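Sample intake sheet
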Amino acid sequence: MAAPSLYWLRNDLRLTDNAALTAAAAQGPVIFLYILDDEAPGDWRLGGASRWWLHKSLEALGAKAPLVLRRGGADKVIAEVLRESGADSIHLTRDYAPWSGALEHRVKAACEAAGASCHRYGGYLLHEPETIRNGSGEPYRVYTPFSKACFAAGEPKPLKPVPKFTPWSDALKSDRLFDWGLLPTKPDWATGMAAHWTPGEAGAAVRLKEFIADGLAYYADERDRPDRDVTSRLSPHLHFGEISPAQCWHAVRAAQLAAGGKLDKAAEKFLKEVLWREFSYHLLHHWPTLPEKPFRPEFASFPWSDNPEGLKAWQKGRTGYPIVDAGLRELWATGIMHNRVRMIAASFLIKDLLVHWQDGERWFWDTLVDADIASNAASWQWVAGCGADAAPYFRIFNPVLQGEKFDTKGTYVRKWLPELAHMPDEFVHRPWEAPALVLKAAGVELGGNYPHPVVDHAKARDRALAALKETKGVQ
């Protein structure tokens, strides 16, 4: 029998449009290897919500292909599997996390020591970060010209079908997925997530199909409305590679062709959001300290507040500002937060409470099912005003006005804050202004079942602008 090929699964947990798997299958029998490596990422090992998703996704993939599961440093585990199996090649999809380049070099060295060839492929992004450059040959720092360059680069390559593969028949030692302890025990905080998500390649395909059929037409006009179900909710599927960005791109393009061929406003807006993900990885590749240091170094001296009480109130959805609290409650219940509400909640933490953006970044890393090292860092820095192409720090969201603009009837707030379910529309985003009789009729006790605001927004805004003025070099 021919020597097997080793396919190292990473954030590419799918069979369709998978260049690494296709190449491995063409070589001969395939060993499907997934490694839970908590060593290489260091402090950025997977958070709780991501670990839940990973368990479910591996469970789904394991029903289609026999997986060998190992835990430990990936380069060490791969050396062991090469030695045990006699595999003569390894195939992997490139990753772009700050630690991945060094890890891939160690894996290549382990392969060379074992006499096996090492092959790396794209597929996690539409464009490799080195290929999109500005007119001076430098990486982009601003999103809009970056997105235009991506559109100008042409359509993604045609999709690869599921390859015919022969699993390696010799038994290899494998961990039991359940023994990795990726699922919560008591209390089982993932019950709500299980009701909202179907991790795995099949779930991703269904989600894309449903979005194109039911949400895409309204995407441009209503994606900022948390009370409307028009967003794609593809981000966790993309993060774990259960679907490729090229699949999403081609599916939306195909839907447009079927409708007449022209790229309409809604489809263009969605594709631009796919390119925001690309831009985040473009930044991370060229500035790998993005998750831990401000892109604009002058913000290193910003006078953040030591405010553990405020951070805790924000995490628990107990700030007294309904649109912020609803977002954090949605996050805890489902592992996701509507994108517009993410911006409102992030602005409140950073600018109303003066809590460091990295504290919010860390909370999202642990609680989001789509926690993504590039998008998470780029987006938090965007709101904080210290990132590439950032919103200016002095642009401070008013959580009341944002709630009234994007959740006009309070539908989203009432869904996630049942204690405000009977508040009239006039006061649902500002309950502290409601007369006592209105509060009583709605069953709301401020300071009891719903908190007083933890901060006065107008005063907090002035404080934030004063802190900005203190920061040297910031304009």
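Comment: DSSP finds 20 helices and five strands in the chain. The CA atoms of residues 71 and 180 lie 8 Å apart.
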